[in-house]
Amino acid sequence: MAEKKRNYEWYVVQTYTGYEQKVEKEINLLIEGEKRKLEEDKLSSPGQDLYLLLRKVKVPMREVAGVSKSGKPVKRNEKVLPGYILVEMCLPQEADGVDGQKGWKDPCSKIRKIQGVNGFVGTKPTERPKPISDAEYNKILVQTGEVKGDKVNFIQQDFDVTDRVTITEGPFATFSGVVEEILADKNKLRINVQIFGRATPVEVDVTQVKKI
Question: Which of 118, 123, 131 is CA-nearest to residue 84?
């Protein structure tokens, strides 16, 4: 009997910052365990419609250009979504499952119980998680370089919100202000500067700014 085509989708799991790889490892263990159980069930129940609920997990990473302490250009990898990881799943609509199959509660509960996990983005613990759209997923893949898109050279950013900075280049050169927002996907900072006595937010490239 031909295997039924399954609709796998990507879900976003929120984690404590710094726990992304630890959670990824634990979910990979769940996936490996489910694969072994699936093979056993196929042998004991041939012909039954069995499939993996969990298929893949990833921490999206991208290459970032920076400068070493000696002034030499260096490259490193950084997380595209700090505090979030992606999990590919095929979740049943039923909460508790039917005909011996697991429902969506079982795999989602196991993931939520992993140390460092806050939950699934956009849903309550009692709700079936909501997947991200293909467009949202492809946007992440463009940032990681896994699919083609407009070339973006990400630059290492050592700024924090509330940092006092001076703009060194461009139309706002010599103005000083406070960092209000870090626009990491654009390699820009939104800075609140005083122009003609009024607080004005401006966006500048991170290469055009230095800390005071």
Answer: 118
The conformation of residue 116, written as its DSSP 8-state character, comes to T
Would you tell me how many other CB atoms lie within 10 Å of the CB of residue 179? Answer: 18
Q: Which residues contact 192 (CB under 8 A, 6 or more apart)?
A: 177, 178, 180, 199, 200, 201
Spell out the residues 6+ positions from residue 56 whose beta carbon is closer than 8 angstroms to its own.
31, 87, 88
Q: What is the per-residue pLDDT across 88-138, written as a single tens digit (0 to 9) for each?
A: 999 999 998 776 678 999 999 999 999 999 999 888 889 999 999 898 898
The whole model's pTM is what?
Answer: 0.68
Which burial class, exposed, middle or buried, applies to 107 when counting CB atoms under 10 A from its CB (0-12, 13-18, 19+)? buried
Residue 32, C-beta contacts closer than 8 angstroms, at least 6 positions apart: none
Rounded CA separation 161/102 (Å): 45
